[in-house]
């Protein structure tokens, strides 16, 4: 059967025909884009005409840096995002322990030490869950707190040294407090998920429907262990995924560790930390460094070359300016030895940049995948004067003017999952509380829409089949409540996804 979508404002993201009125879909693919009358001529014996009565149609959103599997599992765990005290955390953990199956770790997610005023300790968690391992994940997913049983199972004790690229917080006597940073959390985090992963098909089915409701039709899961790669195979075999999910592979020892045993496919390499990313700042006349850097320039260059020679693409997580500098240096060195690698690498996040780094990234010609929804989610009122004025935070406009190829993503569950919220944040630079950050770095609406559709598809290597509405591409399309190119900037975040069509099948409403 052929479906004819007519009487619409179709924002195609195709430069040869930016705006159309209709399109035809057959067997999951777009067969024609144009005017209503010419599309109606394509009627066959079996056809359906869908009159959109002037509504706006855009390509399905593509999210090339999303943690689908992590977010899907979090629906099973205690949500502590709104906790305001240690007592709130303890109540959530105690309740979660009741519902946690025998043999599984008790898990809670999303606590924010800024709202609570401090980080909880192993003793705080022991009081709530004394008889089994428990893990409380920070909202950043780059630090966590473990109770005494969890620390013991992971082999973390008084004499355990800090791993390279991580830190075990300790009290004045040298005992671990339970707070673990970056690579120090690898073992406890990996153990804490094992018993839950058997439920992936169940949670993935529900999660993919939620994604479709937000207009997301394709993603890349940005940290897939070998065990989760096997779970993804099960989910696909069961027909549980309502959207297209690609995988970026990490190793079995933890997200942040060297991915030596990663499953086949594109690699994810963490160059620096997250909440404590690798920074170099000039302050009080002196240069200071902080945060965690996981690789030297030489080590990262070797990893890139090994991956490229094996036919892999690589996504480099780099947040701080020192982390981004290390990634840029290594990519430059590796491209010098293997020029084709330029098309097989990108940098994700790149939150803290300098004008020099922006120019160097543009010169390399690689994609950068950024997260505008972090602006929306920010709980802090932006500082009027940065600690180091040479460092720019999320400089989308500056990067675009310099020629950097930018795509958008959410980093969900670290950021809000809605692409519409991300687009609104990039355009208005405004948080949900109304705070505005660096308004000079705002993007035009058309550029922001492209960054979450065609740009994102290009960064993910999906642009041959997704990202724009063109003949031959997959029929991934959205019907919106308003035209983002015409509505007021302040109303962008209120736009609703009325219909989501993936592979020519309507999935929202299901």
Core attributes:
single chain; 510 residues; alpha/beta; Diaminopimelate Epimerase, Chain A, domain 1; eight-stranded parallel β-sheet; six-stranded mixed β-sheet; 17 helices; 28 strands
What this model shows, in words?
Helix 3 packs across helix 5, helix 10 crosses helix 11 and helix 11 (321-337) packs parallel to helix 12. The protein is α/β, with parallel strands linked by helices. Strands 8-15-16-17-20-21-23-25 form an eight-stranded parallel sheet, with helices on both faces. Strand 11 and strand 12 form a beta hairpin. The chain is built from 17 helices and 28 strands. It is 30% helix and 26% strand. The longest helix is centred in the middle third of the chain and has 17 residues, at 321-337. The chain has a domain at 77-194: Roll (Diaminopimelate Epimerase, Chain A, domain 1), CATH 3.10.310.70.
What's the gist of this structure?
By secondary structure, the protein is α/β, with parallel strands linked by helices.
Q: Biggest β-sheet, characterized?
A: 8 strands, parallel
Named at the architecture level, the CATH assignment of the domain at 77-194 is Roll
Rg? 23 Å
Look at the helices and sheets and give the structural class. Answer: alpha/beta
Would you tell me which CATH topology of the domain at 77-194 applies? Diaminopimelate Epimerase, Chain A, domain 1
Helix content class:
25-40%
Give me the side-by-side strand order of the main sheet: 8-15-16-17-20-21-23-25
Query: Total number of β-strand segments?
Result: 28
> How far from one another are the termini?
19 Å
Name of the CATH first level of the domain at 77-194: Alpha Beta
Quaternary state, please?
single chain
Question: Total helix count?
Answer: 17
Strand content: 25-35%
Mean pLDDT: 96
Low-confidence stretches: 381-385
Shape: globular
